[in-house]
Specification:
Elements: H1 2-19, H2 23-29, E1 50-66, E2 69-71, H3 73-79, E3 96-115, E4 118-136, E5 144-155, E6 158-168, E7 172-182, E8 190-194, E9 200-204, E10 217-228, E11 231-242, E12 250-251, E13 255-265, E14 270-281, E15 285-286, E16 305-319, E17 322-336, E18 339-354
Antiparallel strand pairs: 1-2, 1-3, 1-18, 3-4, 4-5, 4-6, 6-7, 7-10, 8-9, 10-11, 11-13, 12-15, 13-14, 14-16, 16-17, 17-18
The structure holds copper (II) ion (CU).
Copper (II) ion binds near residues 43, 45 and 111.
Amino acid sequence: MKKLITILGGGIALLFSCGMANADMAAMMAPQAKAPIGVMGAHMHKEGKWMMSYRYMQMSMSGMLQGDKRISPEDIVTQITNPFANPPSSPTTVRVVPDDMINQMHMLGVMYAPTEDLTLMAMLNYVDKSMDVVSFSSGVGTNRLGMFNTNSSGLSDSSIGGLYRLYADKNQHLHLNVNWFIPLGDINQSDQVLTPMNMRMDIRLPYGMQLGTGSHQLQAGLTYFGSHRDMSWGAQGLYTHVLNDNEEDYRWGDFASLATWYGYRLSNSFSASMRLTYRHQKSIAGMDPQIMAPITTANPHNYGFDRIDLGLGINTVITHGHRAALEWELPIYEDVNGVQMAMDSMLTLGYQVMF
Ligand SMILES: [Cu+2]
């Protein structure tokens, strides 16, 4: 009986919403009416409307950068100082170097608009990180001892927040973004590594392999969106401030991003988009005394970067209220603090249902 009521209710709601198919609704349903799927909190809802969304994001990294230049693992293990050096137990240079990394994220989102000017949103994130690493033999030289893999997965930092409408007319829209990130991700993940002395050891994984930041974070920003006929365009600036040192006595650097995009309708159900995003993150402040391995990722100064990414996307409208989208981003400029892995690409796939 309960099921029947749900189906009937859904059917009536669908009929009702299809019944109000006016120009406004048609515009809202156009594929280019939404920002590229990789942009978070880019749209608001009409009062009373809900949305459930799922996003899958995959970041691929490989090779190493020093600043904005490529550096080989052999150069790293002979030139880059190990800040935790304590010979002979810990070598004077880094001896373990990341080779490649895949960072997968599953994001469940819910949005609801209690009033016309306010849309609330919450996101629950789950990450799965995998890194292949090369160990060089003993304390000096360029003999490769072997490769190993480290993995971590679980719940990550998740957010609740809202979007507040500042301005809207027929073609343009401006809103405020505010999000609070709650540190749900574990920062004590460990895995087995191959040491330069050819021993297998369980150690706490470096910062980048942990599941969360361990800190509360406050994000604020502005989103602008415009549309005219078959075109849409927008811009979003966000700043994420890390509020406190975590329980291991460090904090991730503040993060800022500035994105601008353009969307164009290809057909009734497809649109294409292009996006440019500037991203900046400061390095980690403080350190976890349990993370002291002779690997580049154990040095808190090897975090933070400046990057410009180019994003190409497709938005589709499947049926009324259902959308699917993908966006593929690749860096066109990258300058990292210290020595870090280079970003290859980021892929975001998403599905959204509005009701
Ligand atoms: Cu939404």
